[in-house]
Specification:
Layout: E1 3-12, E2 20-25, E3 59-62, E4 65-68, H1 78-82, E5 92-94, H2 96-106, E6 112-116, H3 124-136, E7 144-149, H4 155-161, E8 167-171, H5 177-184, H6 189-200, E9 204-211, H7 222-231, E10 237-241, H8 259-271, E11 277-278
Helix pairs in contact: 2-3
């Protein structure tokens, strides 16, 4: 079987602990206004609107499908900004074995792989197959298998993945359902349930909170939030700072977060007993 892959980064130090191969899958079940990879949300329907607009003639329509010529592409991103599907013609369909070829090339220099997106769990059969293959291959089974997820996966889905997954890093993009729906288009009840389930199975590698000035609601619900975190056990909480780089639409006009926006939340969490709070390494 083939699966839709947006990008492979052989060596990353920002997608989990240590040096990791980061695999970004195409397609997401949220539509976040603040998404920094908005071209990974949708999937190409080969409408071909991007083809005549490409200034480097890297796109053609062949048998009704958009074809991307990597050798001609100058990475100008014109196609990404034009796509009505929030997709990319540069996504590739790869088999598990083809992905393993990339992993083998990097295996001596990485500590694990992280599958992200888009939303990794929208291609759950691929995740299970890939992680199972890694765990059963002697030369690769030392690599840890992590998922960077929005948490919008059913309990049944997580139980399929847990036996071969070493951990998940989950974003809780807002505490209140209404605020979460405003930011992402979806309610967050399932996401909270996923966080609880992963923590109960010692698979919650990291809980992530995103500070968006004037848009996030963590401080308004700080006592409820900290009670929730306290029930998870000693889980690291990473605070990320929203930046406008790469976003589309109205979020482009929002203010980027600074240390002055992030630190009040960090202090509030620490004061209420959250043991491990990780601050942004830098602010752009």
């Amino acid at each position: 079987m083939k699966y839709l892959v947006s990008k492979i980064i052989p060596f990353s130090c920002v997608d989990g602990p240590g040096s990791r191969l980061a695999l970004f899958l195409q397609g997401c079940n949220l539509n976040c206004k603040n998404c920094h990879n908005p071209w990974t949300i949708g999937r190409c329907n080969h409408c071909a609107q991007c083809v005549p607009a490409c200034p480097h003639n890297a796109l053609t329509l062949v048998d009704g499908r958009v074809n991307w010529d990597a050798s001609a592409c100058q990475q100008c991103d014109t196609c990404l900004h034009l796509c009505p599907q929030q997709s990319t013609p540069m996504a590739k369909t790869l088999s598990v074995e083809e992905v393993l070829t990339h992993v083998r090339k990097a295996a001596m220099f990485i500590e694990g792989i992280t599958v992200s997106g888009g939303e990794a769990t929208t291609q759950l059969p691929f995740l299970v197959a890939l992680f199972s293959a890694l765990k059963s291959t002697p030369s690769l089974q030392h690599l840890s298998c992590l998922v960077d997820s929005n948490g919008l996966l059913s309990e049944t889905g997580w139980h399929r993945l847990l036996p071969v997954c070493d951990g998940a890093m989950i974003d809780l993009k807002a505490w209140g359902s209404d605020r979460h729906r405003f930011l992402t288009g979806r309610d967050n009840a399932q996401i909270k349930a996923s966080i609880r389930l992963l923590a109960a199975h010692q698979r919650l590698a990291e809980l992530r909170l995103l500070v968006i000035p004037d848009q996030c609601d963590y401080l308004q619900h700080i006592d409820e939030l900290c009670e929730f975190i306290g029930e998870l056990g000693d889980v690291p909480v990473r605070i990320n700072a929203f930046q406008t780089h790469g976003v589309y639409g109205e979020a482009k006009q929002w203010r980027s977060a600074t240390a002055g926006d992030v630190e009040p939340l960090a202090q509030a969490l620490t004061a209420r007993g959250v043991n491990t709070v990780i601050l942004p390494a830098l602010y752009l």
